[in-house]
Each structure stands twice: as structure tokens, then as C-alpha cells.
């Protein structure tokens, strides 16, 4: 799958807006509580924040590429058994064009 720079920019913009909105909502609802204690500050995170933190950690631990899939495709290419129907290629090209056009 190819990810265009336009898609990345859109996701970053949306993430920034969502993150800002989420912080405002948490402040308004009191989900994030900061308490002063001896020895420093303390913050309590909402369940949603903890979920996102765990998801981020899992994503960071995941491999960049799926080695097994790459190896299977490489072997199929070398043996001449790898073939992609022209319709699939055309569909992907048109899909990419439409996504870039709409974004």
C-alpha cells in the first residue's frame, strides 16, 4: 500500500485538531486531574489516554515491514509465478488518483 504525503498531512491535521479538542474536553470534564504533592506534581490519566498510550507502544514495537510476506512475494517474482491482473492495477491507480484529488 502506498501512502501519499497528502494523506499523511491530512492525518496529522486531523490528529492535531482531535488532540486539542480532547485536551479541552478533558479539562472541562475534569478527567485529567493534576495534584500537588510533596516531591512533585502528579497527573492521573483517563482510561482513553491509557488505551492510546498502550496502542502507541504496541505500534512502536511492531516491525516496519512484514518480512514473511515480502519473502513470499520475492520468491514468487523470482520463479515467475507472481502475476497481478491488469484490472487490479488499474483499480489501484484510479483509487490513488481519486484519493489524492479529494484530499
Structure description:
This protein has 103 residues and is mainly alpha-helical. It has one domain (5-102). It contains four helices and two strands. It has a two-stranded antiparallel ribbon. The protein is elongated. The two termini are 17 Å apart.
What's this entry about, in short?
The chain has helices at residues 5-29, 47-61, 67-79, 86-102, and strands at 33-37, 40-44. With 103 residues, it is mainly α.
What does the largest sheet look like?
A: 2 strands, antiparallel
Radius of gyration: 22 Å
Number of strands: 2
Which term fits the overall shape?
Answer: elongated
- Please report the distance between the alpha carbons of the first and last residues: 17 Å
Overall helicity: 55-70%
User: How would you spell out the order of helices and strands?
Assistant: HEEHHH
List the helices and strands and how they pair.
Layout lengths: L4 H25 L3 E5 L2 E5 L2 H15 L5 H13 L6 H17 L1
Antiparallel strand pairs: 1-2
Please tag this protein with its features.
about 100 residues; mainly alpha; two-stranded antiparallel sheet; elongated
Amino acid at each position: 500500500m502506498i501512502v501519499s504525503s497528502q494523506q499523511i498531512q491530512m492525518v496529522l491535521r486531523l490528529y492535531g485538531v482531535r488532540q486539542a479538542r480532547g485536551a479541552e474536553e478533558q479539562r472541562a470534564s475534569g478527567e485529567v486531574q493534576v495534584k500537588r504533592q510533596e516531591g512533585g506534581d502528579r497527573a492521573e490519566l483517563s482510561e482513553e489516554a491509557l488505551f492510546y498510550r498502550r496502542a502507541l507502544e504496541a505500534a512502536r514495537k511492531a516491525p516496519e515491514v512484514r518480512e514473511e510476506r515480502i519473502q513470499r512475494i520475492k520468491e514468487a517474482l523470482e520463479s515467475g509465478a507472481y502475476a497481478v491482473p491488469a484490472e487490479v492495477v488499474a483499480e489501484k491507480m484510479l483509487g490513488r488518483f481519486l484519493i489524492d484529488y479529494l484530499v
